[in-house]
Structures are given as structure tokens and as C-alpha cells.
Amino acid sequence: MSTQASRSAARVMLSPAVISLLIWMIVPLVLTLWFSFQRYNLLYPDRAGFVGFYNYTTFVASPDFIQAIINTLLLVAGVLLITVIGGILLALLIDQPIWGQGYVRILVIAPFFIMPPVAALVWKNMFMNPTNGLFAEAFKALGLTPFDFLGDAPLISIIIIVAWQWLPFATLILLTALQSLSSEEIEAAEMDGAPAHKRFWFIILPHLSRAITVVILIQTIFLLGVLVEILVTTNGGPGTASTTLTFLVYKQSILNSDVGKAAAGGVVAVILANIVAVFLMRAIGKNLDA
Amino acid sequence: MARAVTTRRKTLTTLAAWGIALLIFFPILWMILTSFKTEQDAVLSPPVWFWFDWTTENYVTVMDRANYFRFFMNSVIIAIGSTALGLLIAIPAAWSMAFVPGAKTKDLLMWMLSTKMMPGVAVLVPIYLIFIKLKLLDTHFGLIIVIMLINLPIIIWMLYTYFKEIPGEILEAARMDGATLRSEILYVLLPMAIPGIASTVLLNIILAWNEAFWTITLTTVDAAPLTKFISSFSSPQGLFYAKLSAASTMAIAPILIMGWFSQKQLVRGLTFGAVK
Amino acid sequence: MGQITLSKVTKRFGDVEVIPPLDLRIEDGEFVVFVGPSGCGKSTLLRLIAGLEDVSDGQISIDGKDATSVPPAKRGLAMVFQSYALYPHMTVRKNIAFPLRMAGLSAAEQEKKVMAAAEVLNLTSFLDRRPGQLSGGQRQRVAIGRAIVREPEAFLFDEPLSNLDAALRVNMRLEISELHASLKTTMIYVTHDQVEAMTMADKIVVLNAGRVEQVGSPLHLYQNPQNTFVAGFIGSPKMNLLTGPEATKHSATTIGVRPEHIATSTTEGLWKGTVGVSEHLGSDTFFRVNNTGLGETIMVRAGGEVAIRHGETIYLTPDPTKIHRFDDKGQRL
Predict the structure, then answer these.
(1) Where are the beta strands (DSSP E) in chain A?
(2) Which of A32, A177, B12, C154 is 20–30 Å from A237 (CA)?
């Protein structure tokens, strides 16, 4: 439904967005690729030159790498699991007739507005600190030995912090979807004698599937890049217990100043992100009439 | 239609919902409370809840130590600047995709979104070097560009879903009425899309305000926003929770208040048009 | 001046040819109606003339000048859309003034023209309302107001009455006809309703599957349908089309007789049948006659006060001078 003139106008109007995103994607990527084949350490600027796949082999062969991949997957999967299931339950609860629904929504949405360093600092110091964090106080009040969350269960602690940040997002989207479900549909099912768990399974959950896909897509995009939370709380440790791929690359470039190896890690991260992206886009493409 | 429930059931669900909501909100509440305590009260064991000597001295100390206002202004400049620039690029693009869709429109959208999946750390060094070369390091302009680019796909996608809800016949009417493309967008499309643009702007300001990776790595002093301000408090640990809380509260307060006031539009925006 | 010529105009969407090469000439000041069943390409044809779609081939000229690649804004045409396409964020006044504002007229001139249009269309008391606060008929008038202030070469109407209720539709039909009579500007009007076509048009263009089946004045089409499609489409109730031995008697493949050209009798006639469902309209009575042995139910129109009961036997005699004959390709003989 268009004319030649409007189609060419459309191309012109699209070009700033397409060109700027292309540059933003390609230029750094090409540079990263280039660095990944170079010996390039900011601490030893004189030792430079082409090293082939050396950076890749050392990056991938290091035991940290496998650990980082596993940690990344655990982080993403853990947070998704908590936020989607928690979000559904919370949305179902808030959708019930309750007093002060608006205020409840305001309270629940709040963590979404908190910048990552603040969230990480507050959780680290005031809750998870083993000497005077609130959790330690709670353990003490119950007569238990305080548990060192960030020391003994660093990845789980980070998952908790990140899940707290993203639970509001999941809840609100799922709540919106839930509110668009017509009560007639539910009532019809009730008339048909479907018990509550069957109504949830056969009517509510399918209705939410679109919203769940959106939650998973958007969150995965952001979760793969989680860095500041780790940086502020555990610094990837103890050892590599909470080092994700993102953090590993960051460590190589900033902390070890090894640009070459960091670039190789970056390329690996991009490849993995793309695998996830293709996988997700396939799944989402079906569910979104974009 | 509201379904009838017994008061007893409503009371129970209300209690449960409020309980969980308060639990989710508690870390923020605790942070705000702590910011008004003295450092001694802040680490008291067992903790004190409300019955402590309320003080604002932490805020004064934080303001003295780090020039809060400058960080705040930098956050404002970056958030608003990147959002404005993003809209400028995204509105024409979204118009194209919504009203002159082609066979490749969907793929293009997906590609744009996929650029968001590129891990920032992977390209940190090249970007850093480019920034040094172009003298963009620690400048507002440099950060505005980067933050704009990482959020651009989301702005485009959101605007696209809003524009698609506007009937094409109205834009055709404007064309028949002699409107140029510019007037068509300026006088007809944008005024009709105001609610959608508002949610897009809100979400984008929040994302820009809270963006921590690029703002921390690409700034030192001049253009450093509140994220940098807060991470400067992270190194010396413990023993000054109250000041940390005061600084944190100041960093999140503006966006928290803005978010609360606009949560209706925001939620609509968050769903990316995928949930009606 | 609003003389529009289409020569060999063709429209393809991908491989699908929705409008095969088409020639048409619309004279200045004419009221032309494009009529046809839904999906016949009449709206597409209108959009081609408006410039909202590109022609795939051929040429459109307005007042003798080639307008094939002129953008819609520059063709000097005004369009009234099916959904009215009013700007919901503007008041009625601003809606009507919008084309003038786009043309760069001064505020005073805009106001003068808007007031004049509002006067003609009885919109003066609604000027400060928004489209959302208006009824369907009022919205329709605003859309027309927005079109007339431009003083266009020609008006294009895309099924403008299809969203109105029946009573309002008759009213608006008259208003548009009156508007044409006073403005004397070319109007092209698209509709699927043959009653609108018959009552409003100077010239009707009957379209079917993108092809022009026949062009002519309403009466000409009524009296001399070029083919069975036009014969069946124009006139209400539909013409009775008969095939078989009865048609062979007239050495044709198909013959057509309009319901109003059949005489009825209770005693004698050419065809004999039983009365089926009848509709008494007061002025007229329409009834179906079954079991005539002609293979079809025959629709007959009789005067308003004929007393005919369901199931009675009836004799029918078609007026031999009003029988239309068609060949095996459906073309008029």
C-alpha cells in the first residue's frame, strides 16, 4: 500500500538508524577481531605483532573459560526461572481483588528503577554482609551461625540480587497480560467445571505465553551483559566461582590489560551471544507479529 | 466485570499481596531508613527500625565530599540528551517500518534488536581507543552517542508498535490535504502518538539513567553521572553504611519518583506492544 | 476544471494483476460512480487516481496534463475516506482548516473559508468539538468540509456512506448530490451499493475483477445492460435471468426480464406458477413465484395494493419489448 515516492522516502528515513547501528556494530567488531589476532598487552607495549590463534587457544583452554560459560548459563537460567515463576505467582496474586492494588504495584515496581551499582551495594553491605548485614542478624536472632552469602555461595547471591532487580519487570508484564484475559473465558471454564489448577494450566498459562516470551527475550538481552553487579559484590570470586563470560573478558582487558586476549574472549562472547540470539529470535519471531 | 468474593478471602489475599510487596520493597526502604541514621546506629546489633535519632548529616557529608549536583546534572544531560537524539533517529525509522512495510521489515527489526545482544565488554577496548582518538572520553557528547546507540533498537521497536496502531488512512488524508512528509509526521502522526512517545521517553530515560557499564568505563570526572558517583563509594567497605545509603538514595530518588508518577505509561511501554 | 483521463492504466501487486489495462475518460463537472462487488478493484482505481498508489503501467492525466507521477498533494484532488480519516487530536475547525494551513493561507483567510464551509454543511455549532464527540453523520460532513475548502479539481469519495445507518445514508446521499449540483465540480464516487450509483451518478462505471464491464448513464445501464453481469448488478430487485428452452425461444443463451416488466394475472398468462414469499412495501409488492417450470424462481413487482396470497396459483406475462437477450459469453445480442 504505497507509492514509489513513499518507498524511497522510507528508505531515506530508515537510513540514519540503520547506518548508525551498522557502524556501532561493525567498527568495534572489526577492531576486536583485529586485536584478537595480535599480541597486545598495555603493560608490555613493545611486545606486539601477529600471533594467529594464540589468544583464542589460551583463552578457551584456560579452566576459567569453562567455568565462566557454566556460570553465565546458570546466572541467566537462574534469574529467568525465578523471575518468570515468581512473576506469574505474584501477578496472579495482585490480579485478585485486593485493597490498595495501586500501592502494591508501586511497591513491586520499585526495584526496576534502581541502578545496578546501588542494588549491588545495598545487598552486599546491608543484607549479605556476614558480620552486620541484616541476614546475619536474622541468623543470629535464630541462634544460627551467620552465613557468608557472597563468600560461600557467590553465584547464588548474585542471582538473588539480579532476580530482585528483574522481578518487577516480569511481574508487571505478566500482570498486564493477565488483566487482558476476559473474565468470560474464565467463567466459561468454571461453568464447564474446570477446577482452579486446570483453569490455570489450560486457559491462563496459554494466554500468558506471549508475555512470557517477551519477558524471556528482553531479560536475556540484559542478563548476558550483567557485569556491574559482579564487579561490585564479588569481583568474580572467590577464585572464579562467580566469574561469568562477560566478567572474564572484562578482567582480561581492564585488570590484566591484555587487550589481545580480551579481544579473543570478546569474539567468543559475541559468537555465543549470537547463537543465543538466533535461538531466541526464532522462538520469539513465531510469537510476536512484529 | 468484577467477580464477587467474600470479604474474608479479600482480606487474606490483600494481606499476602501487601506482605510480598513490602518484602520486595524492603531493601529500598531499609536503605532510605539507614540514610537517616548515624553510622553507629546503622551497624547496631540487633538493628534498630524506626526509633533512632533521625539525622540528615549523612546527606550533608556526601554533598560535601562529592559534588553530588554535578553528577546529578551529568545524569540528567546524558539521559535527556540520549533520549532526544534517539527519538530524532527513531521516529523516521519507525514511520518507515510502520507505514511503508516491506517484506524485510520484520527481519530488519530483529536485526536491530540483535545489536543489543552484542556484549559491551567485547567491544570495550576498541570503543575506548576510538574515544581516545576522537577525544570523546569523559565528554557528554561521547556518552550521549553511546547510550543512544545501545537503546536505539528499543526506542525504534516501541515507536513502531505504537505507530502501527494508527490507521494509515489518516496519514493518507494528510497527504491528500497537501501535507509534506515533514508536516504529516509533525502535525498528524506525532500528536496522535503522544501517549506512546511518552512511554518510550520514560523507559528510555530510566534505562539511560541506570546504565552503568559504559558510563563507568568511559568517564572519569567531567561527564561522570550518578552511576560513577555511587561506584566511588564501593571501594572502602563497611563502617559507613549510613553515608553509602544517603548517597544511594540521592542517586535513585529522581528516577524512582519519576517512575512512580508515570508507572501507567511505563508499564504500557514495557510490554513492547506485545501484550495488550 | 477537473477532466481526468486514464489510458491503459494497469495495477499489479506482485504477480497479481488487480487492474488489467483500463481506459476511462471523466469529463469536467461529471458525477462518476465506480460500482461493483467488493474486491472488484474500484477502491484501488480510486487510490490510483488519488496518487496514493503507483500505477504499474499506463498514464493518468488531469486537465490534459500528465499526472502519473505527481504526488497526491500536488494533484489538486480532495478525498473523503470510508473511515472519514479525521485528525482525532484537532477540533472540527482545525480539521477543516488543515489543508488551508498546509497551503500556507493566512489565519484570517483560513477562518473565512472554514466558516463558509461550516455554513454550507451545518457544522457551525460544532466547530470547537473534536471528532470523537461527533456522530457519524457529523463526522462525514467534517470530512466533506475538509475536502471542499481546498476547492479541488475533483472530489474522490471512497465508500463514504458505508459506516452510516440506513436513514442517514439516504440523507447524506441527497446532501452530496446537492453539493455536486451547487459546486459543479467533478466527483468520483466509489460504492458497492447500486442504489447509490443509480441515484447519484451522471455516469456509472461498473467494475468487475478490475475490468470495466460497462460505462454509461444510470438509465442507459438500466435499459441496455451490456452483459449479464451488469444486468444482474444494476436494478433492484435483480433482473430475472433465465436460461434453457425459454431463452432458446428468443434465440439467445440467456434472457433477462426485470421484475417490473412482468404482468400478473390470476386467470391467464405465458408462465404459470405458485406465489412464494412476498414483501409488501406499501407502494410496491415484490413476490417470488415458484414452480414455473423455468428452472428459476421469478421475482415480480406489482402495485402496492395487489391482494396475492402465499400458495396461490398465478400467471405471468413478460413485456416482450423489455426482454434482454444475451449470447453464450453473456454479451448483449
Answers:
(1) 38-39, 49-50
(2) A32
Averaged confidence pLDDT in chain B? 85
Whether residues B176 and B228 fall in one domain: yes
Pair C44, C11: CB distance under 8 Å: yes
Does residue B249 lie within any of the structural domains? no
Strand order in the sheet with C262-265: C262-265, C313-318, C271-280, C284-290, C298-303
Phi, psi of C303 (to 5 degrees): -60, 170
Contact yes or no for C54 and A1 at CB 8 A: no
Q: Is the minimum CB–CB distance between B104 and chain A shorter than 8 Å?
A: no
In this prediction, residues C172-186 reach a mean pLDDT of: 91
Q: Is B180 on the interface with A (CB under 8 A)?
A: no
Distances (CA, A) of B244 to B65, B235, B257, C158: 12, 11, 20, 67
- The answer to whether position B1 is within a domain reads no
Mutate to test the interface with C, among A1, A2, A3 (most CBs of C within 10 A): A3
Q: How close B169 gets to chain A, by Cα (Å)?
A: 11
Q: Is the domain of B161 the same as that of B83?
A: yes
CB atoms within 10 A of CB B64: 9
Give me the domain span that covers residue B211.
66-232
Using CB atoms, pick whichever of C50, C81, C87 lies closest to residue B188.
Answer: C87
Residue B262: inside a domain, yes or no?
A: no
Model confidence pLDDT, tens digit, residues B120-169 = 888 888 888 888 889 888 899 999 999 999 999 989 988 998 898 899 89
Domains and CATH numbers, chain C: 4-232 (3.40.50.300), 255-326 (2.40.50.140)
Domain count, chain B: 2
The answer on B73 and B41 residing in a single domain is: no
Assess whether B18 and B50 both reside in one domain: yes
Contact partners of A by the rule of 3+ C-beta pairs under 8 A?
Answer: B, C
Q: Which residues pair with C242 in a beta bridge?
A: C255
Residue B78 lies in a domain: yes
Low-confidence ranges of chain A (pLDDT < 70): 1, 283-290
In this structure, CATH architecture of domain A62-287: Orthogonal Bundle (1.10)
**What are the backbone dihedrals phi and psi of residue C31, each rounded to the nearest 5 degrees, phi first?**
-105, 105
Quick check: A108 and B118 CB within 8 A? no
DSSP A162-210: HHHHHHHHHHHHHHHHHHTS-HHHHHHHHHTT--HHHHIIIIIHHHHHH
Same domain for B25 and B82, yes or no, is no
Confidence of residue B275 (pLDDT cuts 50, 70, 90): low
